[in-house]
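EI: anyone free to look at a 428-residue chain?
SC: sure, send it
EI:
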Amino acid sequence: MSAAIDTGDTAWMLVATALVLMMTPALGLFYAGLVRSKNTLNTFMMCIAAIAVAAVTWAAVGYSLAFDGDGAIVGGLGNAFLSGVDFAPRPGGTIPELVFFAFQATFCIITVALIAGAVVERMRFGAFLVFAALWSVLVYAVLAHWAFGEGWLLTGGTLDFAGGVPVEMGSGFSALAAALVVGSRKDYGRQALLPHNAVYVLLGAGLLWFGWFGFNGGSGFSTGQNSVLAFTNTLLCPACTLVAWFALDLIRGRKVTAIGAATAIVVGCVLITPAGGYVSPGWAMLLGFAGAVPSYAVIAYRTRTRVDETLDVLAAHGTAGFCGILFIGFVAQASWNGVSDGLLYGNAAQLGDQALAALAAPIYAFVMTFVLLKAIGAVYPLRASDREEAMGMDVVQHGEEAYVTGEGAILLLPDDHERVAVPVADPG
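SC: here you go
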Protein backbone atom coordinates (compact mmCIF):
# COMPACT_ATOMS: atom_id res chain seq x y z
CA MET A 1 0.00 0.00 0.00
CA SER A 2 1.21 3.50 -0.82
CA ALA A 3 2.99 5.38 1.94
CA ALA A 4 0.61 8.31 1.33
CA ILE A 5 -2.30 6.32 2.75
CA ASP A 6 -3.48 7.52 6.17
CA THR A 7 -5.08 4.67 8.11
CA GLY A 8 -7.17 6.99 10.27
CA ASP A 9 -8.59 8.80 7.27
CA THR A 10 -9.26 5.48 5.56
CA ALA A 11 -11.04 4.02 8.59
CA TRP A 12 -13.30 7.07 8.84
CA MET A 13 -14.09 6.98 5.12
CA LEU A 14 -15.03 3.31 5.29
CA VAL A 15 -17.49 4.16 8.07
CA ALA A 16 -18.77 7.22 6.21
CA THR A 17 -19.37 5.16 3.07
CA ALA A 18 -21.43 2.64 5.01
CA LEU A 19 -23.43 5.48 6.62
CA VAL A 20 -24.26 7.01 3.26
CA LEU A 21 -25.28 3.66 1.77
CA MET A 22 -27.65 3.18 4.71
CA MET A 23 -29.34 6.45 3.75
CA THR A 24 -30.93 4.88 0.66
CA PRO A 25 -32.96 2.24 2.56
CA ALA A 26 -33.71 5.00 5.08
CA LEU A 27 -35.04 7.10 2.22
CA GLY A 28 -37.13 4.12 1.15
CA LEU A 29 -38.69 4.00 4.62
CA PHE A 30 -39.26 7.77 4.59
CA TYR A 31 -40.89 7.68 1.16
CA ALA A 32 -42.91 4.53 1.85
CA GLY A 33 -44.62 6.12 4.83
CA LEU A 34 -45.63 9.12 2.74
CA VAL A 35 -47.59 7.14 0.13
CA ARG A 36 -50.82 5.15 0.35
CA SER A 37 -50.53 1.65 1.78
CA LYS A 38 -51.18 -0.06 -1.57
CA ASN A 39 -47.97 1.50 -2.93
CA THR A 40 -45.67 0.92 0.04
CA LEU A 41 -43.51 -1.86 -1.40
CA ASN A 42 -43.22 -0.34 -4.84
CA THR A 43 -42.04 2.95 -3.39
CA PHE A 44 -39.44 1.21 -1.22
CA MET A 45 -38.38 -0.97 -4.15
CA MET A 46 -37.62 2.08 -6.28
CA CYS A 47 -35.00 3.05 -3.70
CA ILE A 48 -33.60 -0.48 -3.54
CA ALA A 49 -33.48 -0.54 -7.34
CA ALA A 50 -31.38 2.63 -7.27
CA ILE A 51 -28.72 0.76 -5.30
CA ALA A 52 -28.58 -2.00 -7.90
CA VAL A 53 -28.70 0.09 -11.05
CA ALA A 54 -26.67 3.14 -10.02
CA ALA A 55 -23.89 1.07 -8.43
CA VAL A 56 -23.41 -0.87 -11.67
CA THR A 57 -23.52 2.15 -13.98
CA TRP A 58 -21.20 4.08 -11.65
CA ALA A 59 -18.62 1.29 -11.78
CA ALA A 60 -19.00 0.88 -15.54
CA VAL A 61 -18.76 4.49 -16.74
CA GLY A 62 -20.21 6.98 -14.27
CA TYR A 63 -17.18 7.24 -12.00
CA SER A 64 -14.86 7.69 -14.94
CA LEU A 65 -17.00 10.39 -16.55
CA ALA A 66 -17.11 12.24 -13.23
CA PHE A 67 -13.50 11.97 -12.08
CA ASP A 68 -11.20 11.03 -14.97
CA GLY A 69 -9.46 13.93 -16.67
CA ASP A 70 -9.92 17.66 -16.52
CA GLY A 71 -12.44 18.34 -19.27
CA ALA A 72 -14.65 21.34 -18.64
CA ILE A 73 -17.97 19.55 -19.23
CA VAL A 74 -17.34 15.84 -18.68
CA GLY A 75 -14.49 13.53 -17.80
CA GLY A 76 -12.98 10.73 -19.83
CA LEU A 77 -13.17 6.94 -19.93
CA GLY A 78 -9.77 6.17 -18.46
CA ASN A 79 -11.34 4.66 -15.34
CA ALA A 80 -14.20 2.86 -17.10
CA PHE A 81 -14.98 -0.48 -15.47
CA LEU A 82 -12.64 0.60 -12.63
CA SER A 83 -9.56 0.53 -14.83
CA GLY A 84 -6.66 1.86 -12.78
CA VAL A 85 -8.76 2.19 -9.62
CA ASP A 86 -6.87 0.36 -6.89
CA PHE A 87 -5.26 0.76 -3.47
CA ALA A 88 -3.22 3.83 -4.35
CA PRO A 89 -4.66 7.23 -3.46
CA ARG A 90 -5.78 9.84 -5.94
CA PRO A 91 -3.37 12.78 -6.33
CA GLY A 92 -3.37 14.74 -3.09
CA GLY A 93 -5.48 12.14 -1.31
CA THR A 94 -4.80 10.00 1.75
CA ILE A 95 -7.27 7.15 1.16
CA PRO A 96 -7.24 4.32 -1.41
CA GLU A 97 -9.01 5.28 -4.62
CA LEU A 98 -11.21 2.22 -4.21
CA VAL A 99 -12.62 3.78 -1.05
CA PHE A 100 -13.04 7.13 -2.80
CA PHE A 101 -14.89 5.33 -5.61
CA ALA A 102 -17.21 3.53 -3.19
CA PHE A 103 -17.97 6.72 -1.25
CA GLN A 104 -18.85 8.58 -4.42
CA ALA A 105 -20.95 5.63 -5.60
CA THR A 106 -23.22 5.98 -2.58
CA PHE A 107 -23.85 9.61 -3.56
CA CYS A 108 -24.92 8.60 -7.05
CA ILE A 109 -27.17 5.89 -5.63
CA ILE A 110 -29.13 8.08 -3.24
CA THR A 111 -29.50 10.86 -5.80
CA VAL A 112 -31.15 8.46 -8.25
CA ALA A 113 -33.43 7.22 -5.46
CA LEU A 114 -34.44 10.76 -4.52
CA ILE A 115 -36.03 11.38 -7.91
CA ALA A 116 -38.41 8.47 -7.36
CA GLY A 117 -40.28 10.68 -4.91
CA ALA A 118 -41.68 12.70 -7.81
CA VAL A 119 -43.25 9.76 -9.65
CA VAL A 120 -44.30 7.26 -6.98
CA GLU A 121 -47.71 5.58 -7.14
CA ARG A 122 -47.90 5.64 -10.96
CA MET A 123 -44.57 5.08 -12.76
CA ARG A 124 -43.87 1.59 -14.08
CA PHE A 125 -41.01 -0.15 -12.30
CA GLY A 126 -39.35 -1.21 -15.55
CA ALA A 127 -39.43 2.34 -16.90
CA PHE A 128 -37.86 3.60 -13.68
CA LEU A 129 -35.02 1.09 -13.99
CA VAL A 130 -34.21 2.32 -17.50
CA PHE A 131 -34.44 5.93 -16.39
CA ALA A 132 -32.21 5.30 -13.36
CA ALA A 133 -29.47 3.77 -15.49
CA LEU A 134 -29.46 6.55 -18.07
CA TRP A 135 -29.91 9.43 -15.63
CA SER A 136 -27.03 8.30 -13.42
CA VAL A 137 -24.68 8.59 -16.41
CA LEU A 138 -26.09 11.47 -18.47
CA VAL A 139 -27.07 13.79 -15.62
CA TYR A 140 -25.50 12.84 -12.30
CA ALA A 141 -22.01 11.99 -13.59
CA VAL A 142 -21.87 15.24 -15.58
CA LEU A 143 -22.97 17.41 -12.64
CA ALA A 144 -20.55 15.58 -10.34
CA HIS A 145 -17.73 16.35 -12.77
CA TRP A 146 -18.70 20.02 -12.83
CA ALA A 147 -18.64 20.34 -9.05
CA PHE A 148 -16.16 17.70 -7.84
CA GLY A 149 -14.08 16.40 -10.75
CA GLU A 150 -12.13 19.31 -12.23
CA GLY A 151 -15.14 20.52 -14.24
CA TRP A 152 -15.88 24.12 -15.09
CA LEU A 153 -17.69 25.01 -11.84
CA LEU A 154 -14.95 23.71 -9.57
CA THR A 155 -12.10 25.22 -11.55
CA GLY A 156 -14.07 28.46 -11.85
CA GLY A 157 -14.23 28.84 -8.09
CA THR A 158 -17.60 27.39 -7.05
CA LEU A 159 -17.59 25.89 -3.56
CA ASP A 160 -19.74 22.81 -2.97
CA PHE A 161 -18.66 20.76 0.01
CA ALA A 162 -20.87 17.69 -0.21
CA GLY A 163 -23.19 17.81 -3.20
CA GLY A 164 -25.41 20.86 -3.44
CA VAL A 165 -24.95 20.78 -7.23
CA PRO A 166 -25.14 17.10 -8.29
CA VAL A 167 -27.15 15.65 -5.40
CA GLU A 168 -29.54 18.29 -4.14
CA MET A 169 -30.23 20.64 -7.05
CA GLY A 170 -29.66 17.75 -9.46
CA SER A 171 -32.37 15.62 -7.84
CA GLY A 172 -34.77 18.44 -6.99
CA PHE A 173 -35.06 19.99 -10.43
CA SER A 174 -34.96 16.60 -12.13
CA ALA A 175 -37.89 15.63 -9.93
CA LEU A 176 -39.88 18.60 -11.19
CA ALA A 177 -39.22 17.59 -14.80
CA ALA A 178 -40.15 13.97 -14.03
CA ALA A 179 -43.44 15.01 -12.43
CA LEU A 180 -44.35 17.11 -15.47
CA VAL A 181 -43.52 14.38 -18.00
CA VAL A 182 -45.07 11.42 -16.14
CA GLY A 183 -48.13 13.43 -15.11
CA SER A 184 -50.21 13.50 -11.96
CA ARG A 185 -51.85 10.57 -10.24
CA LYS A 186 -55.39 9.89 -11.44
CA ASP A 187 -56.91 10.94 -8.11
CA TYR A 188 -54.69 13.98 -7.60
CA GLY A 189 -56.79 17.05 -6.84
CA ARG A 190 -59.98 14.98 -6.51
CA GLN A 191 -59.49 13.23 -3.19
CA ALA A 192 -57.12 13.30 -0.25
CA LEU A 193 -53.94 11.31 -0.97
CA LEU A 194 -52.54 11.09 2.53
CA PRO A 195 -49.42 9.48 4.07
CA HIS A 196 -50.35 6.10 5.46
CA ASN A 197 -47.69 5.75 8.18
CA ALA A 198 -46.20 8.81 9.89
CA VAL A 199 -44.00 6.61 12.10
CA TYR A 200 -42.20 5.25 9.02
CA VAL A 201 -41.67 8.82 7.87
CA LEU A 202 -40.18 9.94 11.18
CA LEU A 203 -38.00 6.85 11.49
CA GLY A 204 -36.78 7.24 7.94
CA ALA A 205 -35.97 10.91 8.52
CA GLY A 206 -34.09 10.08 11.71
CA LEU A 207 -32.00 7.45 9.94
CA LEU A 208 -31.34 9.87 7.09
CA TRP A 209 -30.02 12.44 9.57
CA PHE A 210 -27.81 9.78 11.13
CA GLY A 211 -26.43 8.79 7.74
CA TRP A 212 -25.92 12.44 6.83
CA PHE A 213 -23.07 12.68 9.34
CA GLY A 214 -21.20 10.35 7.00
CA PHE A 215 -22.49 12.17 3.93
CA ASN A 216 -21.23 15.58 5.03
CA GLY A 217 -18.54 14.57 7.50
CA GLY A 218 -17.02 12.21 4.96
CA SER A 219 -16.85 14.84 2.24
CA GLY A 220 -13.64 16.21 3.70
CA PHE A 221 -12.10 12.79 2.91
CA SER A 222 -10.11 12.88 6.14
CA THR A 223 -10.39 13.34 9.87
CA GLY A 224 -9.19 16.93 9.48
CA GLN A 225 -10.77 20.25 10.39
CA ASN A 226 -13.15 20.54 7.43
CA SER A 227 -14.68 17.16 8.18
CA VAL A 228 -15.02 18.04 11.87
CA LEU A 229 -16.67 21.35 10.97
CA ALA A 230 -19.10 19.72 8.55
CA PHE A 231 -19.92 17.00 11.09
CA THR A 232 -20.79 19.58 13.75
CA ASN A 233 -22.77 21.75 11.35
CA THR A 234 -24.79 18.67 10.36
CA LEU A 235 -26.01 18.53 13.94
CA LEU A 236 -26.77 22.22 14.33
CA CYS A 237 -28.37 23.25 11.04
CA PRO A 238 -31.17 20.61 10.92
CA ALA A 239 -31.94 21.21 14.61
CA CYS A 240 -32.52 24.88 13.85
CA THR A 241 -34.65 24.01 10.83
CA LEU A 242 -36.78 21.82 13.08
CA VAL A 243 -37.40 24.70 15.46
CA ALA A 244 -38.28 27.03 12.59
CA TRP A 245 -40.59 24.43 11.04
CA PHE A 246 -42.42 23.98 14.35
CA ALA A 247 -43.08 27.72 14.38
CA LEU A 248 -44.22 27.76 10.75
CA ASP A 249 -46.58 24.83 11.36
CA LEU A 250 -48.05 26.57 14.41
CA ILE A 251 -48.57 29.81 12.51
CA ARG A 252 -50.16 28.07 9.52
CA GLY A 253 -52.23 25.35 11.16
CA ARG A 254 -51.90 25.74 14.95
CA LYS A 255 -50.43 22.24 15.21
CA VAL A 256 -46.91 20.84 14.99
CA THR A 257 -47.13 17.91 12.58
CA ALA A 258 -45.04 14.76 12.49
CA ILE A 259 -44.78 14.86 8.70
CA GLY A 260 -43.63 18.46 8.97
CA ALA A 261 -40.98 17.54 11.52
CA ALA A 262 -39.62 14.74 9.31
CA THR A 263 -39.56 17.07 6.32
CA ALA A 264 -37.73 19.71 8.36
CA ILE A 265 -34.98 17.26 9.25
CA VAL A 266 -34.38 16.52 5.58
CA VAL A 267 -34.51 20.20 4.60
CA GLY A 268 -32.00 21.11 7.32
CA CYS A 269 -29.61 18.38 6.24
CA VAL A 270 -29.87 19.50 2.63
CA LEU A 271 -29.31 23.16 3.51
CA ILE A 272 -25.97 22.41 5.14
CA THR A 273 -24.82 19.86 2.55
CA PRO A 274 -23.07 22.32 0.21
CA ALA A 275 -22.02 24.67 3.02
CA GLY A 276 -20.98 22.25 5.76
CA GLY A 277 -17.21 22.65 5.54
CA TYR A 278 -17.21 26.32 4.52
CA VAL A 279 -19.28 28.21 7.12
CA SER A 280 -18.96 28.65 10.87
CA PRO A 281 -21.31 26.86 13.28
CA GLY A 282 -23.05 30.15 14.01
CA TRP A 283 -23.80 30.78 10.35
CA ALA A 284 -24.89 27.13 9.98
CA MET A 285 -27.50 27.71 12.66
CA LEU A 286 -28.77 30.85 10.92
CA LEU A 287 -28.94 28.92 7.66
CA GLY A 288 -31.10 26.32 9.39
CA PHE A 289 -33.55 28.94 10.65
CA ALA A 290 -33.71 31.09 7.52
CA GLY A 291 -33.54 28.29 4.98
CA ALA A 292 -36.67 26.65 6.36
CA VAL A 293 -38.85 29.46 5.03
CA PRO A 294 -38.38 29.09 1.24
CA SER A 295 -38.73 25.29 1.36
CA TYR A 296 -41.87 25.57 3.48
CA ALA A 297 -43.28 28.15 1.07
CA VAL A 298 -42.64 25.92 -1.98
CA ILE A 299 -44.43 23.00 -0.29
CA ALA A 300 -47.40 25.19 0.60
CA TYR A 301 -47.59 26.60 -2.93
CA ARG A 302 -47.17 23.28 -4.73
CA THR A 303 -50.34 21.85 -3.17
CA ARG A 304 -52.31 24.62 -4.88
CA THR A 305 -51.08 23.66 -8.34
CA ARG A 306 -51.74 20.77 -10.71
CA VAL A 307 -48.11 19.67 -10.52
CA ASP A 308 -48.08 16.34 -8.69
CA GLU A 309 -44.44 16.41 -7.60
CA THR A 310 -45.61 13.90 -5.07
CA LEU A 311 -43.14 13.88 -2.18
CA ASP A 312 -41.83 17.45 -2.57
CA VAL A 313 -38.33 16.63 -3.75
CA LEU A 314 -38.13 20.07 -5.36
CA ALA A 315 -38.86 21.84 -2.08
CA ALA A 316 -36.80 19.63 0.23
CA HIS A 317 -33.80 19.13 -2.05
CA GLY A 318 -33.87 21.50 -5.01
CA THR A 319 -34.90 24.63 -3.10
CA ALA A 320 -32.85 23.87 0.02
CA GLY A 321 -29.80 22.97 -2.08
CA PHE A 322 -30.19 26.23 -4.04
CA CYS A 323 -30.31 28.20 -0.78
CA GLY A 324 -27.30 26.38 0.66
CA ILE A 325 -25.19 27.03 -2.43
CA LEU A 326 -25.99 30.75 -2.41
CA PHE A 327 -25.48 31.03 1.35
CA ILE A 328 -21.82 30.08 0.89
CA GLY A 329 -21.35 33.09 -1.34
CA PHE A 330 -22.42 35.41 1.44
CA VAL A 331 -20.84 33.99 4.60
CA ALA A 332 -17.99 31.61 3.74
CA GLN A 333 -15.03 32.36 6.00
CA ALA A 334 -11.45 31.50 5.14
CA SER A 335 -10.68 31.55 8.85
CA TRP A 336 -12.93 28.49 9.17
CA ASN A 337 -12.50 26.77 5.81
CA GLY A 338 -9.00 27.77 4.73
CA VAL A 339 -10.21 28.32 1.17
CA SER A 340 -12.27 31.45 0.57
CA ASP A 341 -14.34 34.25 2.08
CA GLY A 342 -17.83 35.26 0.99
CA LEU A 343 -19.39 38.64 0.30
CA LEU A 344 -19.79 39.65 3.93
CA TYR A 345 -16.10 38.99 4.51
CA GLY A 346 -14.85 40.98 1.54
CA ASN A 347 -15.02 38.59 -1.42
CA ALA A 348 -17.96 39.49 -3.67
CA ALA A 349 -16.61 37.25 -6.45
CA GLN A 350 -17.47 34.16 -4.41
CA LEU A 351 -21.15 35.05 -4.50
CA GLY A 352 -20.93 35.32 -8.28
CA ASP A 353 -19.37 31.86 -8.50
CA GLN A 354 -22.11 30.41 -6.32
CA ALA A 355 -24.87 32.14 -8.26
CA LEU A 356 -23.53 30.68 -11.50
CA ALA A 357 -23.79 27.17 -10.08
CA ALA A 358 -27.28 27.90 -8.72
CA LEU A 359 -28.35 28.84 -12.25
CA ALA A 360 -26.53 26.24 -14.36
CA ALA A 361 -27.21 23.07 -12.36
CA PRO A 362 -31.04 23.40 -12.21
CA ILE A 363 -31.25 24.21 -15.92
CA TYR A 364 -29.11 21.24 -16.95
CA ALA A 365 -30.86 18.82 -14.60
CA PHE A 366 -34.37 19.91 -15.61
CA VAL A 367 -33.78 19.97 -19.37
CA MET A 368 -31.84 16.70 -19.54
CA THR A 369 -34.35 14.85 -17.37
CA PHE A 370 -37.28 16.18 -19.38
CA VAL A 371 -35.69 15.10 -22.68
CA LEU A 372 -34.57 11.74 -21.28
CA LEU A 373 -38.03 10.80 -20.01
CA LYS A 374 -39.68 11.94 -23.22
CA ALA A 375 -37.29 9.70 -25.16
CA ILE A 376 -37.94 6.70 -22.90
CA GLY A 377 -41.67 7.32 -23.07
CA ALA A 378 -41.56 7.26 -26.86
CA VAL A 379 -40.55 3.59 -26.85
CA TYR A 380 -41.88 2.33 -23.51
CA PRO A 381 -44.90 3.45 -21.44
CA LEU A 382 -43.77 5.40 -18.41
CA ARG A 383 -46.80 4.98 -16.23
CA ALA A 384 -49.33 2.35 -15.24
CA SER A 385 -52.87 2.41 -16.54
CA ASP A 386 -55.60 4.04 -14.47
CA ARG A 387 -56.91 0.59 -13.52
CA GLU A 388 -53.46 -0.60 -12.41
CA GLU A 389 -52.93 2.58 -10.46
CA ALA A 390 -56.27 2.04 -8.69
CA MET A 391 -55.27 -1.50 -7.73
CA GLY A 392 -51.98 -0.31 -6.33
CA MET A 393 -48.45 -0.58 -7.64
CA ASP A 394 -47.46 -3.23 -5.10
CA VAL A 395 -49.70 -5.91 -6.57
CA VAL A 396 -49.41 -4.79 -10.19
CA GLN A 397 -45.62 -4.39 -10.32
CA HIS A 398 -44.43 -6.90 -7.71
CA GLY A 399 -47.27 -9.33 -6.99
CA GLU A 400 -46.98 -8.62 -3.27
CA GLU A 401 -48.58 -6.52 -0.55
CA ALA A 402 -46.93 -4.64 2.27
CA TYR A 403 -49.91 -5.35 4.50
CA VAL A 404 -51.56 -8.69 3.84
CA THR A 405 -55.32 -9.08 3.69
CA GLY A 406 -57.61 -12.10 4.07
CA GLU A 407 -55.49 -15.24 4.34
CA GLY A 408 -52.38 -13.25 3.64
CA ALA A 409 -52.04 -13.84 -0.10
CA ILE A 410 -53.19 -12.41 -3.41
CA LEU A 411 -54.66 -14.74 -6.03
CA LEU A 412 -53.05 -14.00 -9.41
CA LEU A 413 -53.65 -16.35 -12.33
CA PRO A 414 -51.56 -16.36 -15.55
CA ASP A 415 -54.46 -15.02 -17.63
CA ASP A 416 -55.62 -12.48 -15.06
CA HIS A 417 -53.87 -9.41 -16.46
CA GLU A 418 -57.22 -7.72 -17.10
CA ARG A 419 -58.96 -8.98 -13.96
CA VAL A 420 -58.92 -7.50 -10.51
CA ALA A 421 -56.77 -9.38 -8.01
CA VAL A 422 -58.71 -10.66 -5.00
CA PRO A 423 -57.65 -12.12 -1.65
CA VAL A 424 -57.36 -15.91 -1.64
CA ALA A 425 -59.83 -15.99 1.23
CA ASP A 426 -62.45 -14.46 -1.08
CA PRO A 427 -61.85 -16.03 -4.52
CA GLY A 428 -65.38 -15.32 -5.74
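EI: Confidence is low (pLDDT under 50) at residues 422-428.
SC: 👍
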